[in-house]
């Protein structure tokens, strides 16, 4: 086996792809990361980094850096958008940290990505290539030939498709059509903290759960800006991502909301549209020398705030499996076996949480009833499957 074929190729240098490269490097395994863009970077705003994501970042040696640059939240709060009553209030204080081994952080997406990128740059085990759009691949007896859009090829022992929700590797491998986009319209905005009424300037996310919709806002790292997102279920066709929308279009959809929430919703002068792309779980994503990771494998609705967390866990798991088996095909099978039930559970749970957030009529009353008397230990117990550290991290 030559040096070029011993390394693993990774399509995509997002949070998942970089974490996989770093995790493999820490097991002594070389990789080449093929990123289509002209530079490695993450755009966009806030990222909720739950304890399970922090466990992986800790294991990769970048946890402290991410936690230092993030806001560690005091609690998770959900209020009924119709009545204003508090439905869920989960403290994220020392009890939480003790129970789960990590706090719950609100980070800037670019900070998480930047920490992984710098760590990748500091090891010669990782080769980072930009302007390298993966177009197709062919399997050879000892691995894969990855074909790039510019006509060049890369030889590797295996290929990990970490190329996101519109994955080319998935298309070649599974070919199950484009992801689902139906029904959800998101409006996003950034609100400077000085414009926020005092009673809304908290160091935690506040979620207003309303009929067919929800609104969430939380401060970014230095608390100077709040990240705002309003999601509404619609039967109409949704707008494309990145369109600018005036407040009246958006506010008209939320007129049943509690006045306290409207105080915040009426602040932005404009909103940017965003869409959700997701899929239902599939039963297989490893095929011989090629596998999928992160959104390419299991894109989910954002209601559980776990897409990046699952990509990070995938990275830890795949590195462990590749380190344990000399045969990449065996390692990719094992990785799939370990990760599939958990990521599928996250995909399904995300949809169920969406239903809880958006409950209306009698369902709304049932939801509030379910949560009303839940104690703190009971809340923690129900989150344990997600926030506890899996064995392979
Ligand atoms: C509104 C919203 C809010 C969210 N909030 C959270 C949250 O709070 N917490 C959380 O954990 N998750 C959250 N997520 C999910 C999270 O953003 C994603 O799950 C995560 O970024 C997926 O990472 P990835 O590396 O798999 O894919 P991506 O980040 O999409 O990276 C894919 C990379 O592959 C590159 N690429 C694509 N095609 C090719 C190709 N053919 N060849 C080479 N390179 C290619 C792309 O340029 C990109 O760099 C949210 C998502 C949305 C939409």
Q: What is the total tally of β strands?
A: 19
Task: Characterize the biggest β-sheet.
Answer: 8 strands, mixed
- Read across the widest sheet, the strand sequence of neighbours is 6-5-14-15-16-13-18-17
Radius of gyration: 21 Å
- Residues in helix, %: 25-40%
**Class computed from helices, strands and strand pairing:** alpha/beta
Shape estimate: globular
Mean pLDDT: 94
Low-confidence stretches: none
What small molecules does the structure contain? flavin-adenine dinucleotide
- The oligomerization state is single chain
Percent of residues in beta strands? 15-25%
Distance between the termini: 29 Å
Number of helices: 13
Key terms:
393 residues; alpha/beta; 8-stranded mixed beta sheet; binds flavin-adenine dinucleotide
Fold and architecture overview:
With 393 residues, the protein is of the alpha/beta class. It contains 13 helices and 19 strands. The strands form four sheets. Strands 6-5-14-15-16-13-18-17 form an eight-stranded mixed beta sheet. A five-stranded parallel beta sheet has the order 8-2-1-12-19. Strands 3-7-4 form a three-stranded antiparallel beta sheet. The protein is globular, with a radius of gyration of 21 Å. It starts with a helix and ends in a 6-residue tail after the last helix. The protein binds flavin-adenine dinucleotide. Flavin-adenine dinucleotide (FAD) binds at residues 11-17, 34-37, 47-48, 53, 133-134, 162-164, 168, 274, 294-296, 302, 305-309, 311.
């Amino acid at each position: 086996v030559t040096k070029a074929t011993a390394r693993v190729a990774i399509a995509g240098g997002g949070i998942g792809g970089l974490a996989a490269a770093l995790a493999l490097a820490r097991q002594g395994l070389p990789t080449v990361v093929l990123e289509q863009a002209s530079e490695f970077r993450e755009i966009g705003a806030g990222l909720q980094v739950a304890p399970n994501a922090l466990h992986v970042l800790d294991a990769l040696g970048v946890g402290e850096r991410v936690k230092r640059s993030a806001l560690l939240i005091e609690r998770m709060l959900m209020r009924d958008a119709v009545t204003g009553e508090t439905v869920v209030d989960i403290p994220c204080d020392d009890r939480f940290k003790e129970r789960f081994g990590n706090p719950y952080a609100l980070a800037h997406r670019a900070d998480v990505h930047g920490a992984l990128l710098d760590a990748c740059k500091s090891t010669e085990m990782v080769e980072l290539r930009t302007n390298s759009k993966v177009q197709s691949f062919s399997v050879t007896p000892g691995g894969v030939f990855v074909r790039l859009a510019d006509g060049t090829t890369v030889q590797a022992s295996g290929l990990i498709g970490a190329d996101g929700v519109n994955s080319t590797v998935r298309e070649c491998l599974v070919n199950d059509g484009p992801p689902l986009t139906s029904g959800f319209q998101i409006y996003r905005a950034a609100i400077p903290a000085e414009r926020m009424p005092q009673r809304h300037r908290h160091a935690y996310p506040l979620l207003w759960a309303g009929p067919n919709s929800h609104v969430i806002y939380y401060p970014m790292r230095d608390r100077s800006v709040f990240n705002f997102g309003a999601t509404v279920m619609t039967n109409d066709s949704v707008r494309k991502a990145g369109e600018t929308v005036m407040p009246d279009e958006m506010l008209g959809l939320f007129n049943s909301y509690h006045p306290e929430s409207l105080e915040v919703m009426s602040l932005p002068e404009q909103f940017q549209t965003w869409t959700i792309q997701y899929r239902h779980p599939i039963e297989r994503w490893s095929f011989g020398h090629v596998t999928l990771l992160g959104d390419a494998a299991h894109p989910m609705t954002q209601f559980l705030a776990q897409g990046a967390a699952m990509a990070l866990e995938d990275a830890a798991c795949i590195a462990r499996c590749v380190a344990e088996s000399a045969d990449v095909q065996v390692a990719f099978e094992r990785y799939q076996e370990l990760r599939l039930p958990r990521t599928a559970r996250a995909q399904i749970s995300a949809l169920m949480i969406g239903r809880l957030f958006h409950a209306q009529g009698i369902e709304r009353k049932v939801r509030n009833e379910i949560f009303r008397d839940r104690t703190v230990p009971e809340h923690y117990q129900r989150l344990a499957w997600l926030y506890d550290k899996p064995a392979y991290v």
